[in-house]
From TrEMBL:
Keywords per UniProt: DNA-binding, Transcription, Transcription regulation
Location of region: Disordered: 1-39
One of the record's GO molecular function terms: DNA-binding transcription factor activity
Ranges where the HTH gntR-type domain occurs: 42-109
The protein's name in its UniProt record: GntR family transcriptional regulator
UniProt key word Iron: no
Record bears the keyword Magnesium: no
Compositional bias annotation for Basic residues: 8-17
InterPro entries (UniProt xref): GntR_C, TF_FadR/GntR_C, Tscrpt_reg_HTH_GntR, WH-like_DNA-bd_sf, WH_DNA-bd_sf
Pfam family, one: FCD
Transmembrane segments: none
Lineage: Bacteria, Pseudomonadati, Pseudomonadota, Betaproteobacteria, Burkholderiales
Amino acid sequence: MPNAAAPSRKKPPRRAAARAADLDVDPQPPRAAGALADAEGDDVEARIYRAVFESVMSQRLPPGTKLPEAPLCELFGVSRAVVRKVLQKLAHDHIVQLRPNRGATVAVPTREETQQIFEARRALEAAIVRLVAERATPADLKALRAQLQAETKVMHRHDQPAWARLASTYHLRLAELSGNPILHRYLVEIVSRCSLIVALHQPPGNAACEHDEHEGIVERIARGDADGAVALMDRHLRDLERHLMLDKPAPRKDLAHLLGLG
Ligand SMILES: [Zn+2]
């Protein structure tokens, strides 16, 4: 690993143990439906990837959090080589930033990146929704409605982290139903990066998706109204971006606070 971010000398185990307790990664998190299509093996690298990914998505590891190698090695009982490989994959997927001599941190998207991510997401989801409107079977629509019912239940329980997860899953489910695995794969990356942005701008677990709009999109798909579904999805994503970027700009002290964590 030529661009490994931290020295390879082993740290004393007692120090690693102390830091492992501070690193809020669940070694065996619940599986994310629909997400991580290419990381769902049983091998240890996939397991670590999923654990860090899930912790970032559920905002247990906020943007800017340091991810030192030693506690990760200890948490998962693996070598530094394995942890580095996983961190590099997470960096490749823009979940983690690797900086020489400074180690790995949870990525902090810039304002410019945020605008680019949302622009790309609107283009992707417009294509996805149009394909779903053309291709969705009655069974697909039934599954989508079941998904919406699950969202409603979780909302009524005020279970915000679960709701944030389900809101993302709704978008990924649509991507699956498009029947185009490439569009799905790109959306997994984009939605992950959007979740990082939400984590920067919202209190933990807060989901910016409007449940009613999710329902409206499904109803338009069910009617075969592709243009209507695409238009509503576009509005839904623009509202999400505006909500994050204008209504609730991240205060400077919050960002500093986030960057100081870990
Ligand atoms: Zn949504």
